[in-house]
Each structure stands twice: as C-alpha cells, then as structure tokens.
Amino acid sequence: MDLGNIVFPAIRAAIGVPAAAYALAALGLNVHFGYTGLSNFGQVGFMLVGAYGTAITVDNGGPLWLGVLVGIGAAVILGLLLGLPTLRLRADYLAIVTIATAEILRLLTRTQRLSGLTKGVFGIQRFANDFYRINPIPDGRYGIGQVSFSARNLWVILVGWGLVALVSLLTFLLVRSPWGRVLKSIREDEDAARSLGKSVFTYKLQSLVLGGVFGALAGILLAIDTQSVNPDTYLAVVTFFAYTVLVLGGPAKVLGPVLGSVVFWLLLQLTDGILREGFNMSGGDVGAIRFALVGLGLMLLMIFRPQGIIGTREGAVLDDR
Amino acid sequence: MLGLTVLLVAVLGGVAHAQESGTSVGGTIFRVDDAGDRQPVAGVQLTVRQGGTDVGRAETSEDGTWRVELPGAGTYQVELDTKSLPAGVGLRDPDRARLDNVEVLGGQQKNVLFPLGKAASKATLGDRFDRFADLTANGLKVGAIVALAAVGLSLIFGITGLVNFAHSELVTFGALVAWEFNSLGLPLLVAALFGMAGGALLGFALERGLFGPLRRRRMSTTALMVVSIGLSQLLRNLYLLFFGGSPRRFEDYAIQQSVQIGPITILPKDIVIIVISLSVLLAVGWLLKSTRTGTAMRAVADNRDLAESSGIDVQRIILITWVSGAALAGLGGILYGTTQTVSFDMGFTILLAMFAAVVLGGLGSAYGAMVGGLVIGMAGEISTYWLETEFKYVTALGVLIVVLLVRPQGILGIRERVG
Amino acid sequence: MTADPILVVDGLRRTFGGLVAVDVEHLEVPRGAITALIGPNGAGKTTFFNLVTGFDRPDAGTWRFNGRDVSHTSAPKLARLGMVRTFQLTKVLPRMTVLENMLLAASNQRGERFLAALVPSVWRPEEAANLERARELLARFGLDAKRDDWAGSMSGGQRKLLEMARALMVEPTLLMLDEPMAGVNPALTESLLGHVTALRDEGRTILFVEHDMDVVMSISDRVVCMAQGRVIAQGTPDQVANDDAVIEAYLGRSHEAPA
Ligand SMILES: Nc1ncnc2c1ncn2[C@@H]1O[C@H](COP(=O)(O)OP(=O)(O)OP(=O)(O)O)[C@@H](O)[C@H]1O
Ligand SMILES: [Mg+2]
After folding, report:
1. Beta strand residue intervals within C31-73, DSSP E
2. CATH number, domain at B147?
3. Cβ C117–A180 below 8 Å, yes or no?
C-alpha cells in the first residue's frame, strides 16, 4: 500500500475543478435551502441547462461568451417555470417538481427528437476552445511534487475558484442586506413574513432563480473543464452530492459550501484510495461503497450535526414552538 | 441503522455478480412466398435504440440475418425501416415496425421477430383501435402498480408529514427479496409473500430505528426529507453492492405467449398482475374505510391533533402505516419486476410516477394516490400512441404541473389551515 | 355606528366541510377606537381574522378597508396598506435575533430590493433610522435586554410581546391582535393594556380577540361577540355583557362567564 497514492490524489481532488463546481452548486442550494428554506432537489437540472445552453450555442456557431449567457438565461427561465406553479403551494410540492423536472430534462436531452440540438446520448464536445485559447498561463507544470497541474488545468482551476470567490462575495453582500433578511424570515415562517407585508412569493422566485443561476455556473464550469456535455452526467445523485456538500459545510453560512466542497472531495477521494489501495477493491464496488457512504454521511450529518463543520449548535436546534 | 444493514446483508448476501459479455439482439427477416416457403430478405435496415439514442444499426445479410452488439442488459427499442423492404412486402402488423420494450438480459443473444406479409396499404381504423386498446390495458397495469406503490408514500406523508424519497427503495427491496427466494426455487407467488414481508420488515425498521426517533427529536420535515434522500442513496448502493448492477428476471413467467381478448393482445402474466393489483387496491380501500385501524389512519392523516385528542394511539398508527405502506410498495416492486426486470434501481425509475400520482391525488390522501396512480399510468402509456416512449415521463410531469396550476390540493385533497 | 368605519364586512362566509366557521352578515369596525372580539372557543374569531387579512379565502363575502374593496387583496398587500395582524399561536422567527425580527417588519425598505441590496450605502441610512425605532419599541415592551437573543429562545409571553412590537414596526392603521394577552404575566398585562390605549390615542384602530372579560371591559370602546360563526351581539362593553344571547352562548357551552 502506497500512502502517496492515497493522499496526493485526495489533495488534488480537494482543489480541483469538480470541487469548485460543487461549491458553486452548493452555494446555489445555500440560497435556496440554507437561507430561504426552499427544498430544491433538482439543482442538477440548473447545471444541465447551463451546460447545454453553452454547448448548443457554440455548436451552432455562436461564440463561447454568448453560450455562457444563454446558459445563464436558460437557468433563469427554468427557475421561473419551476417557481411559478409551485412556490405558492406548500414546500413539498417544490421538492417533488424540481426532482422530477431535472430528471425529465435529462431524459429529454437523450431523445431522438431533440438530438439535432443535443446530439443525444453522445453529447456535444469541444465547444470551449475559446476559453483555452485565452489561457494566459505559459505551458508547463505547476505545483509541488505529485500535486501539480498542467497550464491548461491550472487555468480552469483558477477561473473556477475565482468564480467561487465572486459568488461567495455576492452571497455575502446579499444575506447581510435587508433583502437577505426577508429570505431568512421566509425560511423561519412565511406566514409571519406575509403578515408583515413581505411579498413572499416574489422573494422565493428571486431566490430560486438566483440559486439556480449559481447552479448553472457550476454546470458551465464542469462542461468547460471536460469540454463535453452528456446526458448521463446530470443524474439526480449530483444534486444529492451538492446537498451533502452544503450540510457538511453548514447551511446558512456564506462559506459553508466552499469549505464543505473541499472537505467532501478530500474525503471522497481518500475513501476511494483506501478502498483501492488498502482493500484491493475493484471499480464497481468502490463506486457503490463510496456512494453508499455519501448517503450515510448525509444522513448522519443531518441528524447529528445539521449545522455543519462551522455552524453553531444553537442556531440549528432552536425549538420553534 | 446497524440492524438494518445486517438485515440487508443477510437477505442479499452471497449473490454472485452476473457477467455481461456478448450481449446482443438480432434475428432473421424472411417472408413466406406463395408456395409457402420461407424466403430470407436481404438489405433490410434495422436500428436499435435505448432511451431514444441509437445503440447500433444493422442490415440483413443474404440469409436474412442481422445482429447488433449491445453494451449490456437493459430495455431496448428495435425498429425496422419499412422503406428498406422490397416492393410488395410489408409487415404483417404495420404497427409493429418498432418494438418498444425489448428486454435483453446480460449475456443474452436475444432474438426478435418481424413477421412479414403482403404490404398493407395503410393501418386500418381497426388496427389503430387495437393498438389503442393494447395501450389502455398496459396503462391499466402500470397505473395499478404505481397506485399500489404510491399508497404508502401518500399515507406516510399524510400521517407524519414526511416526503419519503427512500420510498422507492422499499419498492426495490420487496422485489429483491422476492427474487432471492424465487431463485432458491420457491414459486413466484410464494416468493412474493416473502418479498412483501421483507418490505414490511424494512418499513418497521425504518420507522422504529430512524424516523420515529428523529420525529421525537422534533426534527423538521424538511430536514427529514434530506435524511430520506441520504437513506435512499445508501440503500440503493447497498443493493448495487450485494445484488449487482445487471437486471434479472423472475424464474417464472419469463417467457410467455400473448393471448387475444377482444381487441386486446396481452400476456397472461399481465392479466394476473392487473387482477392482483386491482383487487389489492380494492381491499386496501375497503380496509381503510371499514376497519377501525383504517379509519384511525385516515383520521390521523386528516388532522393529527384532533385524532390524538380523541384517544387514537398515534404512534401505533404511524407504525402500522409504515409497515403496511412498505409491504404494498414491496408488492408494487414485485409486480413491476414481473412485467420488466428486477434491478437495484428499479424503484427509483418509478419514483417520479409515484410522486406524480401522490400529488395528483392530493398529498396525504390514500384514495387520491390510487386514482392518481391509475391516471398517471394510463396517461403515460396512452401518450405513446402519439409520442415516442421516452416522452412518457414528460407526459406524467405535464399532467402534474397542469394539476398544480388548476387544482393545487389535488383531485381528492383538501385545503389546509393557516394561523 | 361611526360615520367612517375603517373596516366594513358584508356577507362573509367560510365553511369547512359541513361546518360553518364564519357567517357574518355585516360588521363595521369604528376608526380610532378599540374593538374587542369575544366569543366562546371555536366561535370563528381566528377564522374571521384569517379571512379579513387575506390568509384564508372565504366562500363568499366582501369587505372594505379604508373605503377600498380589499376582498381580493393578498395578505402582504393588506399589511402594506396598514392592516396588520398578530397570530394566536405566535409566529416569531426563531433563528433570527429579536432585533432582526423587528427590523424585518419596517415597511418600504429600499434594501429589500435585489439590486439595491448589493449597495449598502443605498440602504444604510434607512436601516439606521429603523434601528432607532426598533430600539424604542423594544424598550417600550420591556424587551431591550433581549435584543440580541434568538427569538426562538424566548418564553411564550415574551413571544407575544415581540409579535406585538413587531406589528407596530409596520406602522399599522388597523392593528388586529389575536389573544395578545394570553400567556403574558399579569404584571405585564397592565402595561400592555396601557400600550394598547396609547396606540388608540395616537389615532390607530385596534381590533383584538380576548377571552379575559376584565381586560375586555377595561379597555374596549366597543365589543363584538361571535358564536358559531355569527355575530350575536355588539355594542358598548356594558350592553354586550348584559346581553342574553351572549350569556347563553357562554353558559350554554359552560365556558368562563362574562364578568
Ligand atoms: N382549517 C380548518 N379545517 C377544519 N376546521 C377548521 C379549520 N379552521 C377552523 N376550523 C373550525 O372552525 C371553527 C372556528 O375556529 P376558530 O379557530 O376560528 O375559532 P376561535 O373563535 O378562534 O376559537 P378560540 O377562541 O379557541 O381561538 C372551529 O370549529 C374549528 O374547528
Ligand atoms: Mg382563535
């Protein structure tokens, strides 16, 4: 057993692009679930429309920047479509409709009828060349020892975490403002907010769209990193991972998702390494055990430490008579 | 939790993983000439798809054979391009140029048939009616299964406020347990009883070991929803670990010849499934209406505080609901596995339909879930008359959203109280 | 009846299944006065509040607030128009501080708009003014020491006080209180009553639900009594207290008798 084969990949994973992308997706969920109390279980649907919006635009001759805008626009529209019929109803409807819609969007991208746009199950590749063309980092490898990245990798990583920083700052400004206070009041008791003159529905819609746009950014980042979009990337389990990231870091904490994502990927990759190196397990089993452990982890966190790594116990367990 | 894992290991342990190699689908295309001899037809184009995606294409060779290698077990669609048939030759059944549900097992060299005859001018009104009738029967079957599986989901929601995302894993569990016993040689009907008992046991364990204690800690229903998501993830992957990734069939009824009832062409096992599920649904409806426990269940789902103050033992009712809801979910899974295949994620594939059914019928209403399940199942199947199969779920969601817009409390639901 | 009632309700009806919870032919709430709404448990008082404030939809009926038909106006809009209610079962925002509960309630905040929220200099001044007002109100209700505590950590009585103070942050013209004194310690009740009369003297209108007849008799200008969804009597406190229908409604159901 080589310890290096376990530790170094884990460190790489913790600062890699997927970690940044999941931080973004969870930052979005934090706006929904952490601050507004909306149960969006279809965050992956926002990632999907972001990524496909980008890829399809470029595939049809548009520039990448336009694709990114289209992706974001698609997330706004999806947010409105999901929100308008459900946000006036009790919370459970949103949960059900979002998970269903995300799955249906995935099925739709696979269908024959839309394959002119989506290229069906094969997906679309190599649409982010514009992004790599403007890479200012000179060729070479950067990093220390086994934890090093190519110039290409580093470029995506820097842009990814830069985006995370930007979105965190935006979240920080918003949740410290009276606008953020209204969101929190909706999470706590929307009838109370209503009785004080707050148009709860409008704020929920804004929250859903904003967090959805963060999700779209996550999807776009991942798609640019892999230079491909493919229906089977956007499984419901992506949303569940993002929830685990959020709960791990601490809901309703601005930096919770960021910390959560780093720790999540570190742990996930460590488990992977230990199972492979230490127990000589094969790919399929490792995958199943890892996923099962994420599920178990999400349950245990929710039960024993709902405030996450950095939250305070007090805020999480206040009894609301 | 530990007990649960042990239970799963005990039930599922020791199953070897099936290998998947050399899986393919193919056949021979021939016509019967005037002398009554079989004449192979060459140059016929066929396409194999999965979920709307091309998996492969083939052209029949001189001896009329064709074959497409498949990535693995699953449900495929095989379509014959009728334009590639020689002049004067057509499909005996013009509606069957595309076979929608070709089930292929891991390692199987599946054969499918496209019987040819004289070219029909156009599908007659009668043909179209037959197809519609078939779809309706199929819709009834799917709908009744969804309804069975969804009753527990709705009741548990009504009584505890929990939207249980792990309900799909109860569905799967019933089917897996039944499969294990069936593969040991027990007839499916007996194995099904074990499957339901397994489901019930898991329901019991979840309520006693997990959700009951959490409710007592006054965990919010939103937090419980997230817990149930984690649980679903955990269970599904444990199933995968112990049961393997490839779909299996029950030993019984794997291959059957369809029979003709009036305009409907149907497999005998599908008749049995429809009869069983509809009678169980009726029985559940009757039990809810006429027994003390059933009335108590509905009373608790309706208004928990009121029920509690009128002397109903709410904890007991909750437990009974979990156990019976899980057993019904398990039965739903077994029946679903009989029409399709048994796999570790089968429950998840009908979770959306169950949700749609429950919302459609009104969250928390048992009768609503039954009606909703039937409507969703029928709507999905019948929509394939006009649309491709992959739009089935889209139809279900469409129905769901329309209902939310015009009647948010569902067909049988009631408005809730504020203040 | 006063010439210019602040709230006029006509033909308001709400049923739950077979049960008629509210069935009010006509009711006027006089402006600038304290009106008490009494009635035995289950009389329909809370349901009446829910309907009028837009939290529930009636089967039939119209009502006007400040001369404006508001039968189809949403709850938040009504609150912004000046009709603010509290809840019988308090609805404080538990995981927000007492001060945040108060600040939230201030109306017309520019910082509550998405884009403006991003530029603190836009909303800082009004926030400071609201803070000032919130502190004054909290002091008035004896909650200033609790300012930075989680609202969820407060006692039942304190929650009632916070809810009332919070409602006042909205600057209502009609304040509707659903059992504001329930659970509040008697020493505090005294001062609460003082606040309520002071509010009237500032020109506000108050409609409140109360079971304690002493309280009702001591501060209200008018009393309306409901039973089984209907208004069975209204008038001055003395008139209502001596009304046969009222006495029967209470005694007939063996609840506390009017004083
Ligand atoms: N959502 C509802 N569903 C069914 N019945 C309801 C609902 N809301 C109220 N009721 C019924 O309507 C009647 C009036 O209730 P309401 O809460 O308005 O009474 P109240 O006068 O406020 O009583 P209390 O003094 O005890 O607060 C009661 O019989 C109650 O059970
Ligand atoms: Mg009341």
Report:
1. 34-38, 60-65, 68-69
2. 1.10.3470
3. yes
Which one of B104, B123, B142 terminates a domain? B123
Q: What range defines the domain where residue B144 resides?
A: 130-406
Pocket of ligand 1 (CB under 6 A): B 417; C 16, 19, 21, 39, 41-47, 88
What is the whole-number distance in angstroms between the Cα of residue C50 and the centre of ligand 1? Answer: 10
Q: How many domains does chain B have?
A: 2
Looking at CA atoms only, how far is residue A67 from chain B in angstroms? 25
β-bridge mates for residue B91, sequence order: B116
Q: How confident is the model over A154-204, as pLDDT tens digits?
A: 999 999 999 999 999 999 999 999 999 999 999 999 999 999 999 999 999
Tell me, yes or no, whether B200 and B333 share the same domain: yes
Task: Using an 8 Å CB-CB cutoff, list residues of chain A that contact chain C.
Answer: 170, 173-174, 176-182, 184-185, 187-189, 191-200, 206, 314-315, 318-321
What is residue B12's predicted lDDT score, i.e. its pLDDT? 39
> What would the pLDDT profile of A2-54 be if each residue is shown by its tens digit?
788 888 989 999 999 999 999 999 999 999 999 999 999 999 999 999 999 99
> What are the tokens at C203?
């020109």
ipTM value of the model? 0.91
Q: Is residue B12 part of a domain?
A: no
- The pTM of this model reads 0.85
Q: At what angle do helices C156-169 and C120-140 cross, to 10 degrees?
A: 130
Question: By the 8 A CB rule, do A176 and C127 touch?
Answer: no
Q: What is the CATH number of the domain that holds B102?
A: 2.60.40.10
Is the domain covering A4-316 a CATH 1.10.3470 domain?
yes
**Which residues of chain C neighbour A197 with C-beta distances below 8 Å?**
76-77, 79-80, 84, 105, 107, 170
Nearest CA-CA partner of B23 in B323, B318, B247: B247
Q: Which of B100, B123, B146 represents a domain boundary (last residue)? A: B123
What tens digit of pLDDT does each residue of B192-251 get? 999 999 999 999 999 999 999 999 988 888 889 999 999 999 999 999 999 988 888 888
Tokens encoding A229: 């979009």
Rounded-to-integer distance, Cα B223 and Cα A319, Å:
14
* Ligand of minimum distance to the alpha carbon of C43: 1
